[in-house]
Amino acid sequence: MVSRIVTGVTQIIFPYFMYHYYIHGNLNSEFHEYANGADYMTYVVLGSALNVLAVSTLMNIGRALITELREGTLETLLMTPMPRYAYFCGCLLEQTARALLEFGAVTAVGALVGADLGYLFSVRAAAVILLAVFSFFCMGIALSSLMLYTRDTYLTQNTLFITMNLVCGIMYPLQYLPAGLQYAAQIFPLTPAVSLFRNVMIENQSLSVNQLLIWQIVLLSGVYLLIGTVWYKKMELKLVESIFG
Amino acid sequence: MYGAVKGRLEDQDARKIIAQHLVKDYILKEKIMEKSGLFGRKQKRVIHAVKDISLEIPQEKIIGVLGINGAGKTTTIRMLASIIAPTSGSLTMNGVDAVKNHLWIKERINVISGGERNLYWRLTAKENLRYFGSLYGLSGVDLDKRIAYLLRTVGLEEAANVPVERYSKGMKQRLQIARGLINDPIYLFMDEPTLGLDIVIAKEIRNLVSDLAHKEGRGILLTTHYISEAEELCDYIYILDKGRIIAEGTKEQLKGLLAYEPKVVTSVQEPSLEEALIEIINRCNS
Amino acid sequence: MKKFLIVMKAEITKQQQHDYHSAYVYFSLLIWPILGFFEVYYAYKPFELTDYMGIEDGKTLLAFLGTGFMAYTCFWSMVQNAWSMANQERRGGTLEIASLTPASRLAMSYGRALGALIQEVWMFVCFCGFLLMYTKTIRWDNLFLLPAVLLLLIISSTVWGGMLNAVFLFSRDASIVMDVFDMPMTLFSGTRVPVDSFPCWARIVSMVFPLTYCINIIRFALHIQKSSRGWQAEILGLLICLGVMTAVTVFLIGRAERHNRETGELQFY
């Protein structure tokens, strides 16, 4: 938790140093165009805060089952008739408070370095955060199966998170990236979620004008949920064979 | 020649490790909770791990140290192997003060433990031995010959280039022994060398241990929970309890301690070493 | 001295045999730094670059970040390797066995650092080398500077790594060192942002990290950036840092040895 907060805060501090001390607020016209005239620090802080929420949710949901496997408790879990979704929902509820705490810490530091977060405590912002958490949860289920398949957490999670940092438009507008990467970025729910969050928080846009982004998040969530469910069922069969076989 | 023990001394009295009145105290920091106050504070407590131990390990002999868990065996071995310094008492190896010259001692001793740790699993047997040999300053042809000799001795020649992670338990234990012999030690400290091994492999290891002492002239200190192993191998046995030696002697002498005791001897057969050990510890505790 | 070198060589060889072709190494020290490098490169994209402190366009930015990341990866690999090896050695019981031997602990610490450097960082250094050639920072006429830069990096990283090995080898959980040396070191040493642009307090903090002097010297030698302190001051700063780190290493090892002789444990706490 501490290291995730440190990483989130550092993600703000770096651009802060670059923006204030090195470049003295000298942004180019492309940024204003791509970010719809948003203030740079606000833009970065919102991206970083949602990224912390994504990393936290993905990590906790993704690692839940493989942690059980490593600690030898998965055997007991598989023997029970519990609904698997209830298990993941339990993990989500357990970790949401912590994830929101991390999110809060990063936004608080962001406010200190000058980000304008006036719309954070609005129903719209809360709805976007809930939708984003749901999409990260769905992706986490797919990630959980991937981790069980590779029997690895460290390489998988770090490669995923570093790739998301690069392509999802957290620190800079997506348009700066080569076209191929911009398309690739669309497979991560974080990309539309960050755009939506910024539209709501910076421009106070209503959700109805962002339907396209909302549908993209819902669609991606559905796809990840489907992949995760099917894959998990296959993995469970294999696990049962390997543990009890 | 690579199996010969270096530093043989003519003076028989000087060819042994002599420990006299060894004492080892540890300071344990314990957290205690105050009745009032949120945070606990730490309190120092002295643990007398070894209270008074005097023993000898002559070359060419296998000396057994037996005792229940917590008797002080590990601390005793650690002191004898110069891993830790005794709080008081004297320790000499072949006439040299082992407390003051622990680096000199480390070149001439080695420790072998049971279990599967203490080896680099991703490395092969040869690579493991080359690494540990280098830590003793060995290199080049001498080290290569020593490694070849040891792999032959422990029967791992064929698997020399296989990573240790693919070894069976028995193979790992044999490699442990080769590792323990890499510096051609005069004295070996063996901590349960047959732990978890099947009877065939355990027998092989016991034969090897016997040869190391009786044929190659090394002094061996052995700790084990398998009493039959001690009975088969040890020339002399010390029984430890609560940091003290409570009995010592050859296995016959130890059994003899109970031979005329009607409470223990219920049949015409003489008591086993196991019965003798349990009875000695029980008597001492009562 | 011969024994010292034998132990160092053994540690280097062991590192190579232990981590050869490990996916962990390729990911953590090649793929992740490359992705991180491009993330920072794109983070500069919203800014108007106007030759301020030597960064005037995309190519000079690549050279600036390339040198910073190359030096940082060498230093960071030391932190990571010291941490993972110490954990593995402690769990595997090999640390205990190595402590039974009369081998010089200093040779072991430096051997480990050098071994990790040779084994793990060459791929990313090659990447940065190509980057510097692409940006024409390194050309045929100044090609001789490349081995000089690498030598500087090897010596500084090894001394740094030796100290970290001493810290990690003799402490049960020094993972806080990972947190302390990851982001703060990246920020204050000038890997991504020129140190000269920092406020006074941040410049003082940056002086604590030997990486700062290393990066400044490399950038000065390759004409990427001038140091406000002057190159003599940078070299003096680096020498002082190296001296202090060596002294700390010797002190820590000596203390740990005494502690080990007293309690039989290989950690302070």
Characteristics of this structure?
heterotrimer, A: 245 residues, mainly alpha, 10 helices, C: 269 residues, 11 helices, 75% helix, 0% strand, globular
Structure commentary:
Helices cover 78% and strands 0% of the residues of chain A. With 245 residues, chain A is mostly helical. Chain A has one domain (2-244). In chain A, helix 9 (190-202) runs antiparallel to helix 10 (211-244). Chain A is elongated, with a radius of gyration of 19 Å. Chain B is α/β, with parallel strands linked by helices. Helix content of chain B is 33%, strand content 26%. In chain B, helix 3 (125-135) crosses helix 4 (140-153). Chain C is mostly helical and 269 residues long. Chain C has one domain. In chain C, 75% of the residues lie in helices and 0% in strands. Chain C has helices at 2-19, 23-43, 58-92, 94-100, 105-120, 122-134, 145-169, 175-188, 200-206, 210-221, 231-263. The chains are: A mainly alpha (245), B alpha/beta (286), C mainly alpha (269). The interface between A and C is medium-sized, with 34 and 32 residues.
Outline the fold blueprint.
The complex is a heterotrimer of chains A (245), B (286) and C (269).
Chain A: H1 2-22, H2 29-34, H3 40-71, H4 74-79, H5 84-112, H6 123-150, H7 154-167, H8 179-185, H9 190-202, H10 211-244
Helix pairs in contact in A: 1-3, 1-5, 3-5, 3-6, 3-9, 6-9, 6-10, 9-10
Chain B: E1 16-32, E2 41-58, E3 62-66, H1 73-80, E4 88-93, E5 96-97, H2 102-108, E6 109-113, H3 125-135, H4 140-153, H5 169-180, E7 187-191, H6 199-214, E8 219-223, H7 227-233, E9 236-241, E10 244-249, H8 251-256, H9 273-285
Parallel strand pairs in B: 3-8, 3-9, 6-7, 7-8
Antiparallel strand pairs in B: 1-2, 1-4, 4-5, 9-10
Chain C: H1 2-19, H2 23-43, H3 58-92, H4 94-100, H5 105-120, H6 122-134, H7 145-169, H8 175-188, H9 200-206, H10 210-221, H11 231-263
Helix pairs in contact in C: 1-5, 2-3, 3-5, 3-6, 3-7, 3-8, 3-10, 5-7, 7-10, 7-11, 10-11
